[in-house]
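Example 438.
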Amino acid sequence: MSNLLTTLHKLALQLTITPEQIGIIANKFQQAMQNGLAGQPSSLKMLPSYLNKPSRKETGTFLALDFGGTNVRVLLTELLGEGQFTVHARAGKPLKNDIEHYNHISKQSTANHLFDFIAQQIATLIKPDRIYPLGHTFSFPIHQIGLNAGALIHWTKEIETTGVVGKDITALLKAALVKQGLEHVVPQAIINDTVGTLLTSAYGNPFTDIGSICGTGHNTAYLEPCAPWTKEPMIINIESGNFDQLPFTAYDTLLDKQSEKPGEQRLEKMVSGHYIGELVRIIACSLFEDGLLASSGPTREILKTPYLLHGAPISLLLEDDSEESNAIACFLNDNLGILNSTIEDRQALKNIATLVTTRSARLVAATYIGILHHIDPNLTQNHTIAIDGSLYEKTPGYADTIQMTLDEGLATTSEVTTTLTKDGSGIGAAIATAIAVL
Ligand code: BGC
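Predicted structure in complex with beta-D-glucopyranose:
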């Protein structure tokens, strides 16, 4: 076997999550959930949402504000009941734009800059002569003290805007709305995007009791049958991206060390879109360093650039089944500056991307198994897991791997399925507002 093949074989052993490991991770996750709920030390925050599932009868027109870390989006949404809705108008902008010279998520930006920008986007969509109840999806860990109030615990996804951590997000939004003369926009609810995804799917499907995001970030929410704060059913935002009882490789440790917040969001750093490209780069880089892949001069230097593959379509590596791997050759050319890749280089890159994304899907599925065991120990009910995010929607094989891992790890005859819930964070904010005002 060539050195490259031997190394790829070793890599496969390190990155493959075996069925036995799935069981172990699921158990540890379930235990961490229980510890978090009981107020004991846990990597899982288990944050209350103060929301139950929708009745599916909610109707009316609401503004939905969706702040996920990449864009701010505003949707004027009409809920029609039983899972039906219409989006009448949309507005939105990226949170940073190099051409327009702004960046609201860097260290240099403040809470005022950010929330003024958000209020400006809302202003583009509304008329002066009516009241707009607004729901806000804020896709970061917030400590909620009610449906409409919550303070940011810390930023994730490498966002660094100052003056927001510890502050009540609804209060910051209200102040910015007043500054813009938008007092007729009335915030009524603040939710996490996982909660929004669960609400959106459950609005049409009574079996939905888990909502999850597999995109730039990763996290899951679920319907807790008996929440510790109220002893009633309540949707809980697990903040599962921070789970840390996992089989880390040296590559994960390196990525974590070089990240904005070492030690935090360890699961997210192994599974989410923000980090997967970086993992592929780190692994490829170590193969180049060892002279196992095309190692001509400039290549090595370019490959050392952190987050070089951020936003790059890693799925493109997985999709290319052509004999010469032509699309991968273009990818290497455009993204890594490798002009003369061999077929072996291309296949090795595809191999690495496959290992990293398969591991991501299997780890995510293991956490779902932990949640299912917690809410339905004998698995007597059907369950739908609503998922939104580009990784789940667009990565070839990702959704199938999650489903296969669930089937493999769950001994049950009841149906456990996953479903794509697009726009869950936007529509979910409208549903939460309906629940708040009706
Ligand atoms: C955040 C979560 C969010 C997830 C998906 C994570 O980085 O901590 O609150 O749900 O990203 O957007």
